Structure formats: structure tokens, C-alpha cells
Amino acid sequence: MERLARLIEEDECSASCEKYAEELKKLSEEVDKALLCKFGPLLFKALADRNRLKILKMLAVREMCVCELNVALDISQGTISHHLKILQEAKLVKGRVKGKWNYYQVNFEQIEKFMKISEQFLEELY
Predict the structure, then answer these.
(1) Same domain for 106 and 73?
(2) Containing domain of residue 18, as a range?
(3) Is residue 39 domain-shared with residue 24, that is, in the same domain?
(4) Residues 54 and 109 occupy one common structural domain
């Protein structure tokens, strides 16, 4: 709070330190309500890894099971399962069970939602 008081003093701002701090907190709360602030961290975490991007791109071409991704990417089954879990948490990928096999595919509906939310967020910034 001391630094904020010095900033206000140096900028010759007419607002009191407490009032300005309230305004800043209110702004933070408003920003936090933005949909991208709620869903963005999961989305960006999911997209922040090269292997997850490769998996997502491959699943956009066709549905696959872990063993197919294992052969294609030369990554251990456990690592692929870990990446798929993160992609599923972000709702970018959905899975289904067929007999003993788990098949995964891109959740295009969710990607479309994220695109709209991201576009809206970027428009608000601009």
C-alpha cells in the first residue's frame, strides 16, 4: 500500500490511496469474471506442450487409441495417457470405450466455444 501511495503522490492523482486501491480491486474482480479468465488456464496449459499439440492434431484427423499414438509419436503409453488426461480436463479431447480399448477424438464443439470466448476476450482488449 505504501508503494501505491507513493505512485499516487508522484502522479499528482487526486484520489486517495484507499479509494484507488478499491478501484483496482474492483477492476480485478470484473476481469476475473471474463470467461477466458475462468477457462483460459486449463486451455493454455493443455496447449503449452508440443506433444499435446501433436496428439490434438492427430486426433483432429481421426479417432485413435493410446497404442496408436504410442507408435506414431514414439512416446511411452503412460506419458500419452498423462497428456490425454490434461487434454480431457481442458475438454479438448473426449474418449469412449469400445470393448477393451479407449478411443479418443477431438471435441470440436468445445474448441469452437474456446475460439468464441478467445475472440470475445481479444476484442475486449482492443
Answers:
(1) yes
(2) 1-33
(3) no
(4) yes
User: How many angstroms separate the CA atoms of 125 and 11, rounded?
Assistant: 25
Segment 75-85, tens digit of pLDDT = 999 999 999 99
Measured between alpha carbons, how far is 110 from 92 in angstroms, rounded to an integer? 6
Looking at the fold, whether 15 and 60 belong to one and the same domain comes out as no
d(C-alpha 93, C-alpha 79), whole Å: 16
Contacts of 46 by beta carbon, 8 Å cutoff, 6+ apart? 52, 86, 87, 89, 90, 92
Nearest 5°: the CA angle 32, 113, 88 is 90
Distances (CA, A) of 25 to 7, 29, 30: 16, 6, 9
All cell numbers assigned to 46: 493443455
Do residue 14 and residue 67 come from a single domain? Answer: no
* Residue 15 pLDDT: 60
**Number of domains the chain is built from:** 2
Range of lowest pLDDT (26-35, 55-64, 89-98, 116-125):
26-35
